[in-house]
Write a structure and sequence with these properties.
With 308 residues, the chain is mostly helical. The protein has 11 helices and no strands. It has helices at residues 4-50, 56-60, 73-104, 109-121, 126-140, 147-171, 175-183, 188-216, 220-224, 258-266, 271-305. It is globular and about 85 Å long.
């Protein structure tokens, strides 16, 4: 049994550790509040400047040289179409690549090199992806300055994020689930399809949220591949009334996106254009929150339905 002096020393040591824990908690809270309050202040300033400009005409009008008549119709439609193409290519390809590397790929020096490169690609500046896409998609494949080229560019940009998130989500699944499925006679693909992918989907959606939130605000790679700064038309609609009812002409149409429209307005000297840029930024934040909110809802529903 410890004597009284040992008990006093133990209590002093515990009290010292508690003080350090409390100090670390306070520092972490201060760091969190600095980030949150900075965002709230910037968002509030943008909302105060932009909300008075928001109306139906602003959302349904094309850009104009007159700030009172300018709108963001072509910008938010272009943003939505580019994000649709980005998600269509990046999510299935990223999930499949992450699943292969984690469940199928042999553990050797080749896969180690691939894993290191994927991790490094997640931190490459976006302008590098723009230059790659300019040479590959625009000139080599002849896609031109189109919605398809922009979507593929942003898909490359977020692909490493989706792959890394997919692998981390798969690693979090208990090994007993795999062993139980194999013990019941399931093949590797059946185990992946019926257990690995459904159980890891909430974590995968987290990576998709992060990647899409990054892509929707990117400007440098979109400018590099030749997105228009002033556009007064919309791409062809994807749905038609006459057969075959589906059109892919919009994939090869010229476009602009919200960040480029905001950049164009902020470069103008008139104060009214700055108000337009604030309103467009507010709409972009709302679009991002809506997209992320839908993904979070799906993640919640999937987690609720999972039975371990």
């Amino acid at each position: 049994m410890p004597n009284a002096r040992d008990l006093v020393a133990i209590r002093a040591l515990i009290a010292s550790h508690k003080r350090w824990d409390m100090l670390f908690g306070v520092v972490g809270l201060v760091a969190l509040m600095i980030g949150v309050l900075t965002f709230v202040a910037l968002f509030a300033d943008m909302a105060i400047d932009g909300i008075p400009r928001l109306n139906w005409d602003f959302l349904t009008s094309f850009p104009s040289r007159k700030p009172a008549q300018a709108g963001i119709l072509s910008a938010w439609v272009g943003t939505a179409l580019v994000m649709l193409v980005t998600a269509f290519f990046a999510v299935p390809l990223g999930v499949a690549a992450g699943l292969y590397l984690e469940e199928y790929a042999p553990k050797n020096w080749m896969t180690d090199i691939i894993e290191i490169n994927i991790t490094n690609l997640a931190g490459v500046p976006s302008i590098v992806y723009g230059l790659l896409a300019l040479g590959l998609f625009v000139y080599q494949f002849g896609l031109g300055h189109s919605v398809l080229a922009a979507g593929l560019t942003l898909a490359l940009l977020i692909l490493p994020v989706v792959i890394v998130a997919t692998r981390e989500a798969i690693r979090s699944i208990p090994q007993g689930i795999r062993e139980g499925a194999y013990a019941l006679g399931g093949t590797q693909w059946q185990v992946c399809k019926d257990h690995i992918i459904p159980y890891s989907m909430p974590g995968i959606l987290t990576g998709v949220i992060i990647g899409m939130a990054r892509a929707i605000g990117e400007t440098a790679p979109i400018i590099t591949i030749g997105a228009l700064t002033f556009i007064a038309f919309l791409p062809a609609p994807p749905l038609k009334l006459e057969p075959p009812f589906v059109s892919f002409d919009w994939l090869f149409s010229g476009f602009t996106v919200m960040p480029i429209q905001m950049f164009n307005w902020t470069s103008r000297p008139e104060a009214a254009f700055l108000q337009n840029a604030a309103a467009a930024g507010f709409v972009l934040v709302i679009m991002t929150l809506a997209m992320n909110g839908f993904a979070i809802y799906l993640r919640y529903r999937l987690r609720k339905n999972i039975k371990w």
